[in-house]
Amino acid sequence: MILEVRADLAPERRERMRNLIRKAGVARVEDLKSDLQVSVATVRRDLEALEEDGRIRRVHGGAVSMESRLEEVVFDDKANLALKEKRLIAEEAFKLISTGDSIYLDGGSTVLEMARLLAGRTDLTVVTNSLRAAAELSESGPRVILTGGELRRLSQTMVGPLTRAILGQVRLDKAFMGTMGLSIDDGLTTTDPNEAFTKSLVQEHARQVILLADARKAGKVSFARVSDLESIDILISDKKFPDKTARALRKRGLKVRLA
Amino acid sequence: MILEVRADLAPERRERMRNLIRKAGVARVEDLKSDLQVSVATVRRDLEALEEDGRIRRVHGGAVSMESRLEEVVFDDKANLALKEKRLIAEEAFKLISTGDSIYLDGGSTVLEMARLLAGRTDLTVVTNSLRAAAELSESGPRVILTGGELRRLSQTMVGPLTRAILGQVRLDKAFMGTMGLSIDDGLTTTDPNEAFTKSLVQEHARQVILLADARKAGKVSFARVSDLESIDILISDKKFPDKTARALRKRGLKVRLA
DNA sequence: TCAAAAACGATCAAAAACGATCAAAACCAA
DNA sequence: TTGGTTTTGATCGTTTTTGATCGTTTTTGA
């Protein structure tokens, strides 16, 4: 049997490259060079293109997949956004809460920052799938209801089909969501399909959906699709959020607030 | 066979470093140097970067993790009475578990001791309403499913009618329960009615119910009734458990084991 | 309290990786 | 085939990363 060794078309080669990086989480330029049988210059150009799409993130020596577990750890907003800016987003979101509201808190560090602001609000009911948010509110404050479900260790959240059981039985006035990726073409995306399932369930269920996403999330695409952008009512981000994307979102009926 | 020793990408290496520190709580520069096969200079630079992200705090000689494990955030283990007895009871209960079992872990410190024994058992599925038990298993080990429900702050458990939603959807081979009171006349009792509700729900649902109760619980009666004694299959207690009560229980068909 | 030992930060040079540039190769439509 | 465009790989100066060195600070233990 002879393996046909034929030069790839560029898009085909990039797709292979993307898969290689996604599978390993990270990849070195040198490895990609020998795997794909091209020069380093071509590897770099392809990486540049893939980064443009938000599929990967280049680092010195290679690239990290934006569709893997590692990126969540390496590039989550905790690492990349100053605590101060994250707080601004959370405080802006906090203003939206009314007396007696029943609100949902998603996983993610920006939403977690918001949980800290709720410690004194005994008038609220907080529904959450995030153990960290629950921990934050475990001393005092609002009534806390946990969704239940399968524990996802990395994010310390409860996800998957079982979350439907309780979510179907509670009213949610406002849902404050986080996300890994926010793209005009691909909508909201996250790393884990079970997590995506739970997120979309909440968004269908809540009367008003508020997305908390720092500017770095704009244009990013992660692995599992959550929903399209239409299911969001309000986006809260920071000043660095790209104008072009903000305009496109407003055109689609979303309110966009930059804290 | 040759082990390929290839250099890590910086983000990859930092991620490994972060995990090493988080797992151990603290780490010395020298240890990290040999673990990661780099110079001390590089270790220091990486530590600097991780500190910048707020993931660790540098100290003279190394670094300590700022990513406290969940249980440390949520709970400080208070003075645990009769810890030794509880451990013995937990170990006795642990022996009852079979490969592949789906088990329920109730709240309470005795059952929590048991959770600690399950860290390595990836063959199991653990269903629990206890945030402390979940925290104990949040690093690794069995598949963890949380029941959801309203957070009861004092016991850090999820209780009330909402727990029915998920409990109705899972199979429980063995339920390991705790209790506040165990009385021949009044059966099992606990402090909170919502908690009592959830306990009784589990006991109806599980194929086998195993009660973990140290001798001090014998004869005690608390506020909210959980169930009568017939719903228990096996009682595990310690040597101090009163003979008279044990005989009465055996007469009613319970197996009694004193660890 | 003081001196030795350990750890530290700053600095520098070598190595690796990078981006820009340009010519050759491949491709495509006429 | 021809002329024009796109893609590729090599070259080269620049930037980033790394490990070693050295003087300074902190810790240790007598």
What is the overall shape of chain A? elongated
Strand segment count of chain A: 15
Q: What is the number of domains of chain A?
A: 2
What is Rg of chain A?
A: 20 Å
Question: What CATH architecture label of the largest domain in chain A applies?
Answer: 3-Layer(aba) Sandwich
Q: What's the CATH topology name of the largest domain in chain A?
A: Rossmann fold
Reading the helices and strands of chain A in chain order gives HEHHEEHHHEHEHEEEHEEEHEEEHE
The description of the largest β-sheet of chain A is: 7 strands, parallel
Query: Biggest interface and its residues per chain?
Result: A-B, 41 and 41 residues
Structural class of chain A: alpha/beta
What do these coordinates show?
2 copies of one chain form a homodimer. Chain A has helices at 10-24, 29-36, 40-52, 69-75, 77-80, 83-94, 109-117, 131-136, 163-167, 193-205, 243-251, and strands at 26-28, 56-59, 62-65, 102-105, 125-128, 143-146, 149-152, 157-159, 174-177, 181-183, 187-190, 208-212, 224-227, 234-237, 255-258. Helices cover 39% and strands 22% of the residues of chain A. The first copy, chain A, is elongated, with a radius of gyration of 20 Å. In chain A, the strands form 4 sheets. A 7-stranded parallel sheet of chain A has the order 6-5-4-9-12-14-15, sandwiched between helices. The termini of chain A are far apart. Chain A is built from 11 helices and 15 strands. Chain A has 2 domains: 10-75, Arc Repressor Mutant, subunit A, CATH 1.10.10.10; 77-258, Rossmann fold, CATH 3.40.50. By secondary structure, chain A is of the alpha/beta class. Chains A and B meet through helix 4, helix 8, strand 6, strand 7 and helix 9 of A and helix 1, helix 4, helix 7, strand 6 and strand 7 of B. Strand 7 of chain A pairs antiparallel with strand 6 (143-146) of chain B, so a sheet runs across the interface. Chain A binds a DNA duplex (30 and 30 nucleotides) through helix 3.
